[in-house]
Design brief:
Layout lengths: L1 H38 L2 H22 L13 H32 L1 H6 L5 H29 L8 H23 L5 H19 L8 H7 L4 H14 L5 H21 L8
Helix pairs in contact: 1-5, 2-3, 2-5, 3-5, 3-6, 3-7, 3-9, 5-6, 6-9, 6-10, 7-9, 9-10
Length: 271
C-alpha cells in the first residue's frame, strides 16, 4: 500500500513535467513557424523595415540638426518624429499586419487546420505575439539607429522604453486579433484596418503635432496617443515611466483581448 501511495504522486509529477515540455516544444515550434514564414518572404521583410527607416531618413534631411521648436513642444522635428514613427511601426506590425494575416488565414482554411492540431489557442497566439514583438523590436532599433545618425540622442530610460514597447505590442496584438474576429472576409480586411488606423494616427499626432485641446482630449483616451506620449518621455524628454499613459494602453489591451476571446472564429462559418 505504501509503495502504491508514493508512486502515484511521482507519476503525476512526471506527467506534469512531460505536459509542460510538450507545451514548450509546441510554443517554440509555433514561434519558429511564424519567423520562417516572415523571413522567407523577402518583399514583405524589405518593406516592413524599409518604410519606417526611409521615413526617418526623409525627416532627417528635412529637419536635420534643427533646434527645438514650439510646434514640436520644444523638441526638434526629428526628436519628435523618431518615437512617433517607432510607435507607428509597432502599430503596423502588431495591429494592422496581424489583423490582415489572421483574416487571410481564416479565409484560406489555415486557421481551421491549425485548430485541429495539438496546438492550443494559447500556444498559437503566444507564438504570434512573440513574432510580432520581435519584428517590432528590430523595427524600433533601426529607427533609433537611423535617428542617431542625425543627432537624435538615445533614450535615457531604457527600462521605460522596453516596458512601453512590450506593453504597446501586446495591446495592439490584442486589438488586432479582436478586429480580425469582426472582419467578415479577407477581401475587406485591408479596408477595415485602414479605416480604423488612418484617422487614429492623424488625431494621435503621429503625422504632425496636434495643438487642439479638444482633439487631444479625445485622442488621450484612445490607444495611440498614450503610446506616443509614453515613448516620447524616455526618448526625448528625459523622463521615465509614464504610468497614466501606460494604464490607458493596458486598458485597451484588456478590451481587445475580451473581444478576441469572445468573438474569434477559426473558420468562415457564421458567428
Amino acid at each position: 500500500m505504501t509503495t502504491a501511495t508514493t508512486a502515484a504522486p511521482a507519476t503525476t509529477a512526471t506527467g506534469t513535467r512531460a505536459a509542460h515540455r510538450s507545451r514548450t516544444t509546441l510554443l517554440l515550434h509555433q514561434i519558429r513557424y511564424e519567423q520562417l514564414s516572415f523571413w522567407r518572404n523577402p518583399q514583405s521583410v524589405f518593406f516592413t523595415f524599409a518604410l519606417p527607416v526611409t521615413t526617418i531618413l526623409i525627416f532627417g534631411l528635412i529637419f536635420g540638426g534643427s533646434a527645438g521648436d514650439d510646434f514640436f513642444y520644444g523638441l526638434s522635428g526629428l526628436q519628435y518624429f523618431t518615437p512617433s514613427v517607432a510607435a507607428l511601426s509597432v502599430l503596423g506590425s502588431c495591429y494592422a499586419q496581424l489583423a490582415i494575416t489572421l483574416s487571410i488565414r481564416r479565409q484560406s482554411g489555415v486557421l481551421k487546420r491549425v485548430h485541429a492540431t495539438p496546438v492550443s489557442a494559447a500556444t498559437y497566439f503566444a507564438g504570434l505575439l512573440v513574432h510580432c514583438v520581435t519584428v517590432s523590436a528590430i523595427d524600433v532599433a533601426l529607427i533609433v539607429g537611423t535617428g542617431s545618425l542625425f543627432g537624435v540622442p538615445l533614450p535615457t530610460h531604457w527600462a521605460a522604453v522596453v516596458v512601453t514597447l512590450v506593453l504597446g505590442a501586446v495591446c495592439f496584438c490584442a486589438l488586432g486579433v479582436g478586429l480580425a474576429s469582426l472582419i467578415s472576409n479577407s477581401d475587406a480586411a485591408s479596408a477595415v484596418v485602414q479605416f480604423v488606423q488612418f484617422p487614429l494616427l492623424f488625431v494621435s499626432g503621429n503625422y504632425f503635432p496636434i495643438h487642439s485641446d479638444v482633439i487631444n482630449t479625445v485622442a488621450g483616451v484612445l490607444p495611440m496617443q498614450p503610446f506616443n506620449q509614453a515613448l516620447l518621455g524616455p526618448f526625448a524628454q528625459h523622463t521615465g515611466f509614464q504610468w497614466q499613459h501606460l494604464g490607458v494602453l493596458a486598458a485597451w489591451g484588456v478590451a481587445g483581448a475580451v473581444v478576441a476571446v469572445r468573438r474569434f472564429r477559426w473558420d468562415t462559418g457564421r458567428q
